[in-house]
Amino acid sequence: MIGNPYDWIIILVVIAVLFFGASKIPELFRSMGRAVGEFKKGRIEAEMELQQMQQQLVQQPTVAQNQDTKVQELEKQIAELQKQLEQLKKSNQNQ
Predict the structure, then answer these.
(1) pLDDT at position 17, please?
(2) What is the C-alpha to C-alpha distance for residues 28 and 73, in angstroms, rounded to an integer?
(3) Alpha-carbon distance values, 1 to 7, 9, 93 (Å)
(4) What per-residue confidence (pLDDT) applies to 95?
(5) Residues 25, 17 contacting (CB under 8 angstroms)
(6) Whole-angstrom distance, CA of residue 66 vs CA of residue 68
(7) Spatial separation of the C-alpha atoms in residues 10 and 18, rounded to whole Å
(8) Residue 40 sits in which domain range?
(9) In sequence order, what are the residues at sequence separation of 6 or more whose Cβ sits closer than 8 angstroms to the Cβ of residue 17?
(10) pLDDT in tens, the chain (95 residues)
């Protein structure tokens, strides 16, 4: 008998009238509306933060890959400089 959502709404309105009086009901619903608005605003902000965090996580591997590439290039340069140093040492020993 009370399975219908409209029945529950009617019961809640009757209880609200009994406890708060007819003059307090608009104020009560106004407060509920503000609370729902704040909840939605907070949810949207949380979703935005999550999206920003996801974007940062997506960008991090790219930065790491760039750093790996730079490290490899520097290692190659170091190896070339070491070869040149060895050649210079050999040429100095021959003189």
Answers:
(1) 81
(2) 68
(3) 8, 14, 106
(4) 67
(5) yes
(6) 5
(7) 12
(8) 5-94
(9) 25
(10) 567 778 888 888 888 788 877 787 788 788 889 999 999 999 999 999 999 988 887 776 666 677 788 888 999 999 999 999 899 888 878 76
For 93, the token pair is 């020993």
Work out how many domains the chain is built from and give that number: 1
**20 with 28: CB under 8 angstroms?**
yes
pLDDT at position 2 is 67
User: CA-to-CA distance for 30 and 23, rounded, in angstroms?
Assistant: 12
Secondary structure of the chain as H, E, C letters: CCCCHHHHHHHHHHHHHHHHCCCCHHHHHHHHHHHHHHHHHHHHHHHHHHHHHHHHHHHHHHHHHHHHHHHHHHHHHHHHHHHHHHHHHHHHHHC
The widest CA-to-CA distance across the chain, in whole angstroms, is 110
